[in-house]
Amino acid sequence: MQEHPDHHDAELMLRLYELRREEKLRQAREWFAQEFQAESLPDFLKRYPPATQENAYFRMVIGYWEMAASIVNYGLIKESFFLESNTEFYGLWTKVKHLLGPAREAYKNPHLWANIEALSEKYEKWMATRAPEALASFRERFAQMQAQTQGKASAS
Length: 156
Prior knowledge:
By secondary structure, this protein is an all-alpha fold. Helices cover 77% and strands 0% of the residues.
């Protein structure tokens, strides 16, 4: 039987939400959702080199979700409670997972984005039991959004 969330879980969830509302992180999340795309690690480094605003935005977004995922993965907030109202991390994962192997190799860090990866795997299993068709629908919408984003980039 699944344990119900308690006040501690609610406090942590609200604190994570407060952090997401911080103005600069909100801008970074908007940029990531609307504009971030990278076909490969070299493409990422070409588009968003260190010391650029976009690179800082990327680090802010991935850092936030890596932190939030670690809180869930370590059991500091109940997993189902978190997954019921947070899906943005999974969209992020969908956009960066193809960069993971090359980034881990390049930076000699086999643990890079490990919390987001683990939580995304849990999310997929969790969704498969709750709404089996939802992930396929998400992937279809995501592919359409990516095609639109690439179309805008090509037109500019």
